[in-house]
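Two proteins, back to back. First:
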Amino acid sequence: MNPLISIAMKKTLVLGASLKPSRYSHLAINRLVAKNVPTVAIGLRAGVVAGVDIETESVPFEDVHTVTLYLNPKRQEPYYDYILSLKPERVLFNPGTENPEFFEILRKEEIEVEVACTLVLLGSNQY
C-alpha cells in the first residue's frame, strides 16, 4: 500500500452494512464519514447511515480503494466475483469474517488482504 495515499482518497465499500446502530458496520460507516473517507455501502436493507445510501444490489462502484467486510465467510461467497471486479487495493477482514479461501483468491489477484478491525484502524490512525 502506498503510504502517500491520504485517508480521504481511500474510498471504502462497507459490505454487510446495517441500519442498526449497535452493529459494527454501522459504527464503521459513521467513523469513516467522520474521518472524511468517501464511503459506499451494501447491505440487506436499503436505507441511509451518516448520509451514506445503503444499496441492496452489487453496484459497480468506481475507484474503490478498500472493501471492509462485515459478512461471515459463507455470506461472502456470492460476492467474490463482485469484489474482484471492483479491483480494490485491499480487503479488510474484520473479526469474525476471516476466510482463508478468499484470502488466497485475493492474493492471486494481487489484492492486499488485511485481517484487522476497521474501527481500531480508524481510531489509531492506521487506516
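And the second protein:
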Amino acid sequence: MTIINTNNPGKRRNHELRTIAEILRKLGQKQEIDAEAKDMAATIVYCLRAVNATVEESVLAWEKRNYFKKADDFQEKWRWTSGIIQKLESILRTDNWAELPNVMMKLFPHFADVEINKSMRTASDWEGNYDRLMAELDH
C-alpha cells in the first residue's frame, strides 16, 4: 500500500507565507506597538522558521535525487528568511521597536504576490507567541 502525504513542504510553506501576509496587513494598520503587535512579530519569526524547515526538506529531497543545481537555486531563493529572522529576534530581544517598520518594509516585497481576499487568521493564532518566543530566546 502506498501512502500519499498531501501535506507536502510546498503546501505547508504556502500556509506559513499566507499567515505572514495576513499579519503584515494587520500589523500595518496598527497605530502603536501593543501586546498584540508583539505577538504578531513573534509569529512572523515562527512562520519564517517553519518556511526554512520546508525549504530544507525540499532541498534534501532534491539532493537525494542528485538535483544539486535545483536544490542550490531553491535554497538561494529563500536565503532572505534567515536574515529577517535574526533581525526580528533582535528587535524582540532588545525592545527596539523603532526598527520594526524597516524590517516590515523588507518583508513586503516577498509577499507582494500573496493575494488576500478574506482574512483567515485571528488573534488567537498569534496570542501568547511573544512570551513564548522570549522564553525560548532567554534559554
